[in-house]
Design brief:
By secondary structure, this protein is of the alpha/beta class. It has ten helices and eight strands. Helix 1 runs antiparallel to helix 3 (57-71), helix 2 (43-54) runs antiparallel to helix 6 and helix 3 (57-71) runs antiparallel to helix 5 (89-97). The longest helix is centred in the last third of the chain and has 23 residues, at 242-264.
């Protein structure tokens, strides 16, 4: 039997659409595959960073479901109130970081890197040392939505401007097999109901998506396998639809798990008869 390849995940940005990453990771693990490296941009940095630090995807899923239920706001409220993404943003940040506050990137349980953009010159910045929480903030600091973050003597903003799906970064970390997860790349349709010039936030995010599309479509060609959870109909602020978006990531990965398993030389995990029956009935027989 051939030795399984080491697997790296390159997780892209996309706001709430990036919650599909949770479903991707959850399904890979349920199928018995091991994730050895993670790099993420924006929402991918948030999900990837917390997973790399804790190796507890079920807990991360519960956290976002709690945020969805208790703190998410309607789009109408988001547009009416400047920079209000959640009802209590400090509470949300506390929930997300309470288990990793004080942890440095170099001390995560599996290797992790976050991608940010240098505000001064537009250079790509690969964050691999220093505060994990600060790195995740920097990677997801979309201009005019969130303020830039000062880290390692540089002022940093969202990494999607330079590397929306950091496949090359994961390859350079040493992964034999890189799975890219793209939840955002497409040219925005101006006839789409979500493309709006009525609010500053919508305009900025839609324009940012267009830039991200152009950058990502070349970068992702280096991946050994690409997953595209069908979340493009969702908006970047749809945190109230967390459960639905996670399910999209689960289904996309489940539909491709046999091909990924074969390519990485991972055997199907041995299960007890009862567990095999339950997984078969529930559709989780990966």
């Amino acid at each position: 039997m051939r030795k399984p390849k080491t697997i790296g995940l390159a997780l892209g940005g996309g706001g709430a659409k990036g919650l599909a990453h949770i479903g991707v990771i959850k399904t890979l693990l349920r199928a018995g595959l091991k994730i050895d490296f993670v790099a993420g941009t924006s929402m991918g940095a948030l999900v990837g960073g917390i997973y790399a630090a804790t190796l507890d995807i079920d807990s991360l899923e519960r956290i976002f479901l709690e945020i969805s239920e208790k703190y998410s706001v309607s789009r109408k409220m988001l547009h009416r109130k400047n920079n209000i993404l959640f009802k209590d943003q400090k509470a949300v940040e506390k929930i997300l970081t309470e288990n990793i506050d004080g942890l440095d990137i170099q001390n995560t349980k599996i290797p992790f890197k976050a991608i940010a953009t240098d505000v001064k010159n537009g250079d790509e910045v690969i964050l691999e040392k220093g505060s994990l929480v600060k790195a995740m903030r920097a990677s997801s600091s979309l201009p005019l939505i969130f303020p830039p973050v000062e880290m390692n003597d540089r002022l940093l903003m969202d990494g999607g401007f330079v590397n929306p799906v950091p496949v090359d970064v994961v390859k350079n970390m040493g992964a034999d097999f890189v799975i890219g997860v793209d939840v955002s790349s497409k040219w925005p349709d101006i006839e789409d109901e979500h493309f709006s010039i009525s609010g500053v936030k919508s305009t900025i995010v839609d324009a940012f998506s267009a830039l991200e599309y152009q950058v990502a479509k070349e970068r992702v060609k280096a991946a050994d396998f690409m997953l595209h959870p069908p979340v493009l109909s969702y908006h970047w602020d749809d945190f109230r639809l967390t459960e639905e978006i996670i399910e999209k990531g689960i289904n996309e990965t489940a539909n491709n798990i046999r091909e990924i398993r074969e390519a990485t030389h991972y055997p199907k995990p041995v299960k007890r008869p009862l567990q095999s029956f339950v997984d078969f009935i529930s559709g989780n027989d990966y």
